[in-house]
From TrEMBL:
UniProt gene name: GTPBP10
Protein name according to UniProt: GTP-binding protein 10
Entry-linked SUPFAM superfamilies: Obg GTP-binding protein N-terminal domain (SSF82051), P-loop containing nucleoside triphosphate hydrolases (SSF52540)
Main location: nucleus
Organism field: Anolis carolinensis
Top-rank taxon: Eukaryota
Native organism taxonomy: Eukaryota, Metazoa, Chordata, Craniata, Vertebrata
Domain Obg: 59-194
Amino acid sequence: MLRPSSSNVLLLASEVGGAICDVITLRHFLPSPEAQERPLWCFVLSMVWATRALLRKYGRFMDDLRIYVKGGTGGMGYPRLGGEGGKGGDVWLVANEKITLKRIKDRYPNKRFIAEAGANSSIAALKGASGKDSEVNVPLGISVTTDDGNIFGELNKPGERLLVARGGIGGCLVTNFFPSKGQAHMIHLDLKLIADVGLVGFPNAGKSSLLTKISHATPEIAAYPFTTIKPELGTVKYPDHKQITVADLPGLIEGAHVNKGRGHKFLKHVERTKQLLFVVDVSGFRLSPSAPFRTAFETVMLLSKELELYKEELCTKPALLAVNKMDLPNAKENLDELMEQLQKPEDYMHLLPVNMIPELTVKFRDIIPISAISGEGMEELIECLRKVLDEEAEKKIENYHREQLQTLRQLEM
Ligand SMILES: Nc1nc2c(ncn2[C@@H]2O[C@H](COP(=O)(O)OP(=O)(O)OP(=O)(O)O)[C@@H](O)[C@H]2O)c(=O)[nH]1
Ligand SMILES: [Mg+2]
């Protein structure tokens, strides 16, 4: 059974805290002022119902799992005849595209993986047989860490294998014919999605609408914030059969780094994407009637700041900006204003709260006005996504060749 370690308790507390924050924030989205005046128990009941519905849905996605792994014990030696016990089996993690962490948890509720013990040495078989290895299929994109945060390794390609618990050696002359136990420890399987493009934006910006337009994915779309509550992958297909994957993530909000909303928890999933696609509503965004209105420029800067506060390296990833909802009235004027502000962002930083001014402003390779409803700008966006990825791939190849040349030159000297 999973023991309640202090890190687990902290994790649970922060989850509950986050959920309560969400509930408090959500109260602002009750449809009418009358609804807000209903008795508290009415509100609490609807929240309980909403939380159960969320749990049912959210429960399907897991991106962290803690498991126990133990190598098999070695077999006993046979002192009288100098027989050697068999080696205990090892525990291996094997990357498999078809598995999810949720499926592992459902299939092995006790989350214990123990390899077979080695056979004892006997008169019939002086050299005991080795124990069978235990192979645990895990999804691609897994980082394996111990409870103390030490990294065991990563599994990113199908079929890749990682040894996580070695079996004990069998009893032999050196060990006085006593076998040794296998390694045993708890490990974390930390999943970070592997996608070419990660969508980053405030809630309601139209990220899921955009993904639906450019791929066959069918994420939920609705006119209220936090519709997307778990990452969703879509594949964009090009006429030359090249495919790129795009990850739709839950919306970020201002203050996400201090645990507001739920988007921050999912930012780890853009760590491995090759490119970021910022999506902003050209008319700006307001989270709730009591929250400040943010223009498109402010949302871009606030998103940059949230990324910077999560991990500075994210701000240096290749990025594109899709300015969505260009079909709305005044969109053209708002876009012109945004373009002007993005030309000289430092002149407009005073519009932001002091602690939210980004130190590194994200440099967009392209800024593309789009409408996920009318389809405006979609072709250009799809082309730009491809162009950036191709350029990055070329750069990688060039760097590889340069490194090879350097190594060759060093060898010649
Ligand atoms: N007029 C207009 N509305 C749009 C456009 N794109 C999205 N919407 C609407 O905006 C609302 C939010 O769209 P979503 O795609 O759910 O937004 P999201 O960014 O995924 O939101 P979260 O999942 O909450 O983070 C929906 O009502 C969409 O119909 C657009 O280009 N034009
Ligand atoms: Mg969404």
